[in-house]
User: Fold these one by one.
Assistant:
Number 1:
Amino acid sequence: MKIIELQQTDSTNSWLSAHAGELEGECLVYALSQTAGRGQRGNSWESEPGKNLTASILLHPAGVLPQCQFVISEAVALAVTDFLADLGLDAMVKWPNDIYVGDRKICGILIEHAVMPGVIMRTIAGIGININQRQFVSDAPNPVSVWQLTGNEYEIPSLAEKLAAHVENRMKEVFDGTLHSEFMRKLWRGDGNLYDFYDRNAGEHVSARIKSVAPDGMLTIETASGELRTFAFKEIEFLL
């Protein structure tokens, strides 16, 4: 996988989208300073310049049907947990694709597909991992960095290479039938116990357990009373 370093850009996802036609094959681009990093549904991403790994990866997931696109998100999320395991951290995936260590968010992922009828033309996976940042000043409720957890600092360029390798390895598994079961085992709060959620569709708090995640990414929970409810992204909130 080709790796490109940028000194500064507004968003690596935006940069890669603008330059995708000029690039051959898969590519990871990372920025030492990202001025307008994006998260799910337009959320911003706090990142101190030079301290974190803010990257986007261009993928060409040939053969993955649009209705099964969540397998790509699973592969990328598991690649990040592999990457963090190399740094001594046991990370979990908070549905749909945030990465947590304990109850604290260490990574956000934004998956964007270019889709034609019946086929995914390309995918851009934006990945922001908190690495060397020592203090967070935004109103995000629970951020954490590798440095805060381990006391160790890392060189960002070498970490970019490691991340690229892990994504490449996981993308090789999208058709072998094992990714989804591993994703479910690594799912934060996916242990079958009851947890508190806020159902934004119904406007109410519920106690429920995670039941399943569908190939299109829809989440199904089972309430304490046995009722099944299914949600798209942003329709349900995990309460800390």
Note: The radius of gyration is 17 Å.
Number 2:
Amino acid sequence: MTVTVSMHFVNELFGGLSKSDSAKAGYLTRAGISPFLLTAPHGRVTVEQFATLYRLLVNEHDDETPGFFARPLRGGTLKLLCLSVLEAPTLKVALHRYTLFFRILLDDFGYVYSVQNGLARVALVEYQPPAGSRILVHELMLKLFHGIASWMIARKIPPVMMECAYPQPAHSADYLYFYPGKVTFNQPQTAMYFDAALLEQPIRQTKQHLGAFLRRAPADWFYVSLEERLISHRVREHLGRHLADSGSVNDVAQALHMSVRTLARRLANEGTHFQAVKDEFRRDIAIQALIRSERSLPTIADELGFQDMACFSRAFKAWTGNSPAAYRRATAALPSPS
């Protein structure tokens, strides 16, 4: 898993919790995240770091949606939710049980779903404003549904469209990897649309598979890979294998059996372009190399195709607001995550 995520997801995770800056720094340190990233202009962390922090807050507050709602969801809620839907014969029945589960459990939040014109629509309903950061609550609770539904049928569910009941946030470029498909903002409800035919898919997971899924939460439902669907993901996949020797736009277009012009047009339809995808990929690989390895900065720069360290440092600072050396120093001072 090479995708990194914006510090928005980390900062806003404390939105419903009364935490001082020093307390936040303590949690970040335990999760292997440098506290200096709290003020980094464009700081990013790995999905695993975010998941570790999430689990720390869940365990310390006995709330599986830490501070999101007026009523905490005590430890074991996610397990009970999954058990309640695993016995369903199809995704359609499981979705009915899923929405009913939250209707029983929460007074301030829920899900509704409908089917029209061949599309299933799952929407979030606010009966009162969430206690936590509203945008993050919407993002994570929709990803919770998407992740669990994809896991249940053992098949990645490609969103056809997503509507967001909030203005376009600064970190919306991340949605290309979390909500592939068309995304619109300032909508009446936050909702996801997908092919209604998937509702007839049988539930393929069993209780025996549940333990592993829960141990990996929230990473497995926060990030659901859909590489085979979007061209931008296929570009990243190619770069992951051939960045050093075949990372130009011409090389990638040839590998994907299309012209450079066609590649550019299809990436534009996804709201991006080749250099942006390549830069995002190199940014994510660089961050993970700085966090997880002891390879020298010149070695990392060379592996990512930069001519020299100066070019790498300039690019990394443009991506994250900090130099690669500063990123490494801040991370090196951290103890191992607890």
Note: The first helix runs from residue 7 to 11.
